[in-house]
Amino acid sequence: MYTAPDSCEGRCEEPYSEEDECHCDAECETYGNCCEDYGFSSSRDAITDEDLLRVSEQLYRADHNKARPNDIAINPQYQASPDETGDQEDRSPWPLYKHVNEELFSKPTYASFIKLLDNYQRATGREEEVTAEELREQDNFLKEVMKTELMKKLFAFLHQKNRYSSEQEFVADLKEMWFGLYSRGDGEQDSSGFEHVFSGEVKKGKVSGFHNWIRFYLLEKKGIVNYFSHNFDGPWDTYPDVLGLQFSWDGFYKEVGSAFIGSSPEFELGLYTLCFIARPGRACYLSLGGYSLSIQTYPWTKSTYGNGKKYIATAYVISP
């Protein structure tokens, strides 16, 4: 019987063959090379490329907490060519943000998100001490994002695809995949997906992760982040937009940090989670307001939670 090379239909427990595009044997979860519909009883539960384009447009339209056009004014200044992004030269004399309407930050999802940003030590190899208050802040953030239409739509889609049986199960999994600690250093529990993606880390003298506009704005305002240039400016003329940027954080350099600009915290959390569940370790092709965009996520492969589930290692927008 002929089966599509990228599906497990009719191939359950088929022995490994390196000719196959993707695999359906029990080991494929360990190696991260399973077909998209591995473990789902019918192809109806597989998340197709068309599903991703459709649901990403739904989430885009449901982002009611995003910045309005007059909430943010940015000044991107110098556009760096690909051979200039690595030379650590500050080619933009002014800050990136001319104006941000900080009333945005009093919205519940923003306020609970901002509280989480100071919970981390940026150096990898330093154990993260998680206090009871910090655990409460994680729960509060998840509680607030789950009140939004955007996250309700994401859950409804994943529920329909048999990924989660209840909202409670979904929230518990969000907490593990984003906030569960693992070791990027020498065995210390020093990192999590949330810390890496949204707050940023410093590893081997370079900025690692740090893909969030709110974090960038707050640190730029304090003089701790210095904007150097951008190498990509997305086609959107309203928010959220996308920038690929070069900057230094307290003297540590980021060669290309891509970020949504003006998106709500739930928009980023939602899109990254969707792509991590649907296309871990691969480019995830989405559509936002009629423009295409891809997100790359990677699972952390050295430790797991639950029944072999993977933590998020990173998630970011691919800037062309």
Main β-sheet description: 3 strands, antiparallel
Rg from alpha-carbon coordinates? 20 Å
- Principal-axes shape call: globular
What percentage of residues falls in helices of 4 or more residues?
25-40%
Topology record:
Elements: H1 28-31, H2 49-61, E1 72-74, E2 97-100, H3 108-117, H4 132-146, H5 149-160, H6 167-179, H7 193-199, E3 201-203, E4 206-208, H8 213-221, E5 225-233, E6 241-249, E7 252-261, H9 265-278, E8 283-288, E9 291-305, E10 309-317
Antiparallel strand pairs: 1-2, 3-4, 5-6, 6-7, 8-9, 9-10
Helix pairs in contact: 2-5, 2-9, 3-4, 4-6, 5-9
What key attributes describe this structure?
about 325 residues; 3-stranded antiparallel sheet; 10 strands
Give structural notes.
Its main location: secreted. Residues 4-46 form the SMB domain. Its cofactor is Mn(2+). It is found in: Secreted. This is Uridylate-specific endoribonuclease. The protein is of the alpha+beta class and 320 residues long. Helices cover 30% and strands 22% of the residues. The protein contains 9 helices and 10 strands. The protein has helices at 28-31, 49-61, 108-117, 132-146, 149-160, 167-179, 193-199, 213-221, 265-278, and strands at 72-74, 97-100, 201-203, 206-208, 225-233, 241-249, 252-261, 283-288, 291-305, 309-317. The strands form 4 sheets. A 3-stranded antiparallel sheet has the order 5-6-7, with helices on one face. The chain has a 3-stranded antiparallel sheet with strand order 8-9-10. A hairpin with a 2-residue loop joins strand 8 and strand 9 (291-305). The longest helix is centred in the middle third of the chain and has 15 residues, at 132-146. The protein is globular.
